[in-house]
Amino acid sequence: MWSYYPELLERPVPRYTSFPTAAEFRPLEHDRVMDAALAAIPSGAQISLYVHIPYCNEICYYCACNTGRANKKKRLQSYIEALIREIELVGERIAGPINVSRIAFGGGSPNAIDPEDFVRILDQLRASFDAKFSEISVELDPRDFTADWAETLSESGVTHASMGVQTFAPQVQQAIGRVQPAKLIATAMQQLRDKNVSSINFDMMYGLPAQILSDLRDSLDQAIALQPDRIALFGYAHLPDRIPRQRRIDSTIMANQIQRFEMAALGYEHLVDAGYQAIGFDHFALPDDPMAQAARGGTISRNFQGFTDDPAPYLIGLGASAISIFPDHILQNEKNVGKYRDAVFAGKHPAQLGVQVSEEDRLHRQIIEDVLCRGRANIGTLSDASRLTGYLESFEKRKLLTIEDTEILCSDNAAPYLRTIAAIFDPYRIAAGTKFSSAI
Fold first, then answer.
1. How far is CA 280 from the centre of its chain?
2. CB contact at 8 A, 276 and 227
3. Which of 17, 43, 50, 95 is most enclosed, with most CB atoms within 10 A?
């Protein structure tokens, strides 16, 4: 279905889970930037909360997340106390009543902590915010999932879960340091269904070490047989210079660019043939899933969790390295857990990095999001639209898109090139020395 044009995929580009991207984050001038942003949230505003648990019981070789081993009880408890204190601080700094539509727990692995601590955190969120009717989602490591956790999720009102599946191929699991038998995944899936977790996502990957095309096809078949509501199929980004744990991976058994493209194409076609609706370039959902419905309605957006049907204009990140998105700022908490704890226990908000979003940034952000989420964009709002249109000629010549006046319309087979097309409208790209993942 897809045509391979390697010259259009040569340049590594961001995943655009924000704009401006994290590459533009700089140290904040003072520690009151986050306080001012929180105080400016208007009364009655709809917000989402993201809670970061930067711990896992086992560290996978491929993982680029900010996470460490959950093997020291005292350190883990100290982090949880700091997280609860940060929730209190944020709640105190928001001036008026707000509506928390969604709460997402991510990591790391939220189920690396005890179920009782998960309940404590959720109780504090509900005490500090109007979150009685929030949709709650949790990322899960199936290797640590237990009947106690299933019961806790049910009693806590969790309705959405995302499991890190990655691959079912045993030799690939061994190569990435994530061994989890298929039966374990199926058992966790059944436990979640039995406890009325109504929406389940599988995170899966292509381009992994020791993975070949037939491995991916077989893994997708096993996933499809379990019928998760959503599947995210990401391309593995091998950046061992930036991510030391990836140095444990044998780079000689990595797929090359052509093989990665073939895997991405197979995954896309295989999932669509199985009845999943494609959303953007790497998310898929069953047709009656709210995300698929939002995609058909043109209301899908993109944030640090990938493609989302979350319409909230404010995302507040809680925990070490968590990122908050406001209309005029993107702010990131201190990444170092020790420094994060120190700031919180001193009564200061731990936001350390960020970027101010200008009016020009907002114009570019809308175009980038429209390209990635809807495959179309109107670039007439940009002062240099005619110049940028020239960069699209190579895509237009290959029938990947058409241009009518200031309207861009991407074709159905442009999916693997959407990030590259979006990057044309990123005035920050590409800063010297900045490294990004492969476009496919």
1. 13
2. no
3. 50
Tens-place pLDDT, residues 315-362:
999 999 999 999 999 999 999 999 999 999 999 999 999 999 999 999
CA angle, residues 234, 16, 305, in degrees to nearest 5:
60
d(CA 440, CA 429): 18
Is residue 400 within 8 A of residue 416, CB to CB? The reply is no
- The per-residue DSSP string of 124-191 comes to HHHHHSS-TT-EEEEEE-GGG--HHHHHHHHHHT--EEEEEEE---HHHHHHHT----HHHHHHHHHH
- Helix extents (H) in 274-299: 290-296
C-alpha span between 267 and 258 (Å, rounded) = 14
Structure tokens, 283: 């998310």
Taking the C-alpha atoms of residue 235 and residue 99, their distance in angstroms, rounded to an integer, is: 35
16 vs 253: CA distance, rounded Å:
28
Tokens of 234: 């990401």
- Say if CB 50 and CB 315 are below 8 A apart: yes
CA distances, 350 to each of 155, 338, 412 (Å): 31, 11, 43
> In angstroms, how far is the first alpha carbon of the chain from the final one?
15
**What is 405-436 written as a DSSP string?**
TTEEEE-GGGGGGHHHHHHTT-TT---TT---
271 contacts 231 by C-beta, under 8 angstroms: yes
Burial readout 185-218 (b: 16 or more C-beta within 10 A, e: otherwise): beebbebbeebebebbbbbbbbbbbbbbeebbee
Burial of 291: CB neighbours in 10 Å, binned 0-12, 13-18, 19+: buried
Are the C-beta atoms of residues 25 and 332 closer than 8 Å to each other? yes
Both tokens of 252, joined, read 């000689």
Overall average pLDDT of the 57-84 stretch? 91
| pLDDT digit string, tens, across residues 249-274 | 999 999 999 999 999 999 999 999 99
SS3 (DSSP) at 72? coil
Regarding beta strands 283-285 and 277-279, do their DSSP bridges make them parallel or antiparallel, or are they unpaired? antiparallel
Residue 359: Cβ within 10 Å count: 7
8-state DSSP, 275: T
